[in-house]
Amino acid sequence: MTRSLWVVVHRWLGLFMAAFLLIAGITGTALCFYPEIQLALNPKWQKVDPQHNYLDAKQIVAEVEKKYPNLSVSTVDFRGMDEVASVRVTPKMQHGNGQRQGQGQGQGQGHNHAKANLPFDRIILDPKTGAIVDTVKTNDIAKGGISRLGEFLLYLHFQLSLGKIGTLFMGIVAIIWLLDSFVNFYLTLPKLKPAQTGEDDVNHKNFWQRWSPSWKIRTKSGGYKLNFDLHRAFGLWLWAVLVIFAWSSFQFNFHMDLYPKLMKTISDYETTSDTLPKLKKPLMNPKIDWGQAQELGNSYAKSELEKIGVEPIAPVRIFYNPRSGAYYYQTTTTKDLEDRPRHHGTMVYIDGNSGKMLRFSRPTGEHWGNTLSSWTASLHSGVVFGWAYRIFVSLLGLVVAGLSLTGFIIWIKKRGARQTAKIRIKQKLLPAAAE
Predict the structure, then answer these.
(1) What is the pLDDT of residues 155-210, one digit of tens each?
(2) Distance between CA atoms of 85 and 45, rounded to whole angstroms?
(3) Range of the domain at 21
(4) What CA–CA distance (Å, rounded) separates 144 from 37?
(5) What total of structural domains would you count in the chain?
C-alpha cells in the first residue's frame, strides 16, 4: 500500500472517530475526579476513611433486607468507585424455581426484566453506622438531576449512555483508534526514498534530521500550519500513552468476551470462569452467610499474602454470584497497584456452601497477561501514582479532544482545497472544449 493510500485511510478513520473521541476526551478529563464530583453533588453521602473499622457485611445485609424484604443484596461495597459505602440489590428470588419475583415462567426476560422495574438498585450507607442515607437507580440518571452528573459522565464516557449497544460501539471505536494510532505514527516518518532536489537534496540528511520536523510546532506560522503541527506533534509526543489508552478502552468495552479470548491467545492470561465451577442451577441460598464469607475472605487473603510478605488492610467489596455459588472478596493490601481501589485488586473466591477457597488472585505477579491488563486498566482509570498522575490523565483527556478537533479542521481545510482544485480544472477544460 502506498503512503498516499494510508493518508486516505487515516483521514477517514479519524473523521469517523472524531466526535466520539471528543466526547470520550472531555468526559475523561472530568472522570479523573469522579469521587470528588459524586461527593460534592451528594452531600448526604460520606466518604469512607480507609482506616475506618468497617462494619460486618452480615449486619449490613440484614439491615437492608429487613427494611426491603422483597430485595436481595448482591454486592456490599465497603469502598466503591465514588469512595462511599453502598450495597447493590436485586429482586429476591422465589424459593424453588430460581426466578426473580415478578418474572413469569414464559417471559424469558430473567434478571434484567425484573431489575428494570425496581425504583432503585443501589443503596448508599453511612460507613460508620450502616444506616441507609440514599437510594439510586443506576440506569436512570435523568431523575436525579445535577446530583447524577458524575454517573452521567461515566456512562457517556464508556457507552454514550446507550447501554449495551453503546458499549459495543465504543469498543469498535477503541479498536479503530488503536489501529489508526499505528497508521498515524507511520505517516509521521520521513519517506524512505526522498525525491531528488539538486544541491539541497534531503538525502544528505540522516533519518533523525528528516524526522525532526514532525516533532516540532511552528509557533510563528499560525493558521493551518500551526493547527497541523499541533495535531501531528502532540500525537507523536504522546503516542505510546495514547496507544495504552486505546488498548485499555478496547479492554474495558470487551472485557467479557473478545478481550479475554485475545489475551489467552497471545499471553499467559487467566479469567475467573477458568477456575470457578459452573453450576447447572444457581445456588440461591448458600450455607455460608455474608459475615462468614467476609471472615473467611480476610483469613484466606492474610494467609496467601503472608507467603509473599504482604498484608491485607481493609475489605473493598464482597459479591455473591449464584451461577458459580461463590463469594468474591476483594481487599486492599500493603503492596497495592492502585491508590484508589477499583476492580483490579487482590481477590479471594469462596465456595458458598463449604467455605473452601476456590481461587486466590492478585492484580500483578501471577500471570503476565493479567499483570499487563491490570496495569493498562489502572493507568487508564488514573488510580496509580497519586494526584500528579490524575492531573496528567485529566489533561490527556483534553489532548484527545484537541486531536479530534485539529484533525477535523485539517480535513475541512484539505477538503476545501480539493474542491477548489477541481473547480479550477473544470474552468481550464471548459475553454478547451469550446474550441
Answers:
(1) 999 999 898 999 999 999 999 999 999 999 999 998 865 554 454 555 567 888 89
(2) 9
(3) 1-46+157-191+206-269+369-435
(4) 14
(5) 1
